[in-house]
Amino acid sequence: MGTMIATCDCVGARSPQACVSHWVDPPCVHWVSEPALGRVRKPLEAPEISVSRPSLSHPQRVMLDSVTHSSFLPNASFCDPLMSWTDLFSNEEYYPTFEHQTACDPYWTSVHPEYWTKRHVWEWLQFCCDQYKLDANCISFCHFNVNGLQLCSMTQEEFIEAAGICGEYLYFILQNIRSQGYSFFNDAEETKVAIKDYTGSSCLKTSGIKSQDSHSHSRTSLQSSHLWEFVRDLLLSPEENCGILEWEDREQGIFRVVKSEALAKMWGQRKKNDRMTYEKLSRALRCQI
DNA sequence: ATATCGTTTCCTGCTT
DNA sequence: TAAGCAGGAAACGATA
Fold first, then answer.
1. Cystine design at A23: which of A70, A157, A253, A281 (Cβ 3.0–4.6 Å)?
2. Which nucleotide has the shortest C1'-to-CA distance from A10?
């Protein structure tokens, strides 16, 4: 079980408040594609949060889901079936550079696939899950613990082995990026049709493919509209975080809200609501229980 | 037009 | 007693 504990600087607080948000374990929910904050089961669904009342010795907890990989994983001996993106991303062996990503570290969209690092591959996978509503359950992330060159050398069969029917999509998308560059994403409708035409697979979630270009999702993913995405992205973007959120125990998914006022202000700016307060923001988080 | 979802806002009661 | 937190309930806006 993961937990995130946060101490916030709530305005007017008589003493530092302990605000803990906690991404928990299965078998709960559908908290999505956030490598750092929880376990990935399905892309883009709201997290399940449970909250326990804080005390002096045991700060407030907000438990945002978590997810396990499904038994669909073909390579369970390789990969702990309970291993999540949280686990993987917090594992130096799997994802050694994530913590140290900097603003000058190029994003995957600015690098040709063959030159992707492992981190780029993971970002691309996350993008595909988010963008095309691929069911992360279908994907054996361990099979994608490779760099771009290795990824590009994988056959379609290997993609299918690694991600089932989703592997077909991933393979198709990768080949298109390689051949067309990122212009493949420029026309969302064409992309949508192309992918739909490609296969009638059921690995797409019901909401299908969103008309959202890769640009808006890549470097500017902080503009995502959901609160949980906002928090997730903030935690995953050190250059945007500005010390507002800090990891307390990354492996357990525990983070600390250091600047609650700033967090609320940033969320208010995102939602174009200058009346947003940390009280409201925290209520919204609790609402997702 | 309607339903649903994800908040937003207000409120009350409990805890510290 | 004051301040913060938890959670119920209704309203709201976007979207399907």
1. A253
2. C4
Which residue's entry shows tokens 């438990």?
A63
Residue A186 to residues A9, A130, A180, A211: CA-CA distances in angstroms? 42, 16, 10, 10
Its pTM stands at 0.46
3-state helix, strand, coil in chain A (%, to 5): 45, 10, 45
Is pLDDT at A105 greater than 50 in this prediction?
Answer: yes
d(CA A148, CA A112): 8
* CB A287 under 7 Å to nucleic chain B: yes
Dist. CA A267–CA A186, nearest whole Å: 28
The highest-confidence range among A32-41, A187-196, A212-221, by mean pLDDT, is: A187-196
Distance in angstroms, CA of A206 to C1' of C16? 12
Specify which residues A230 forms β-bridges with: none
By three-state DSSP, how is residue A136 classified?
Answer: helix
* Helices A156-180, A118-132: crossing angle, 10 deg rounding: 90
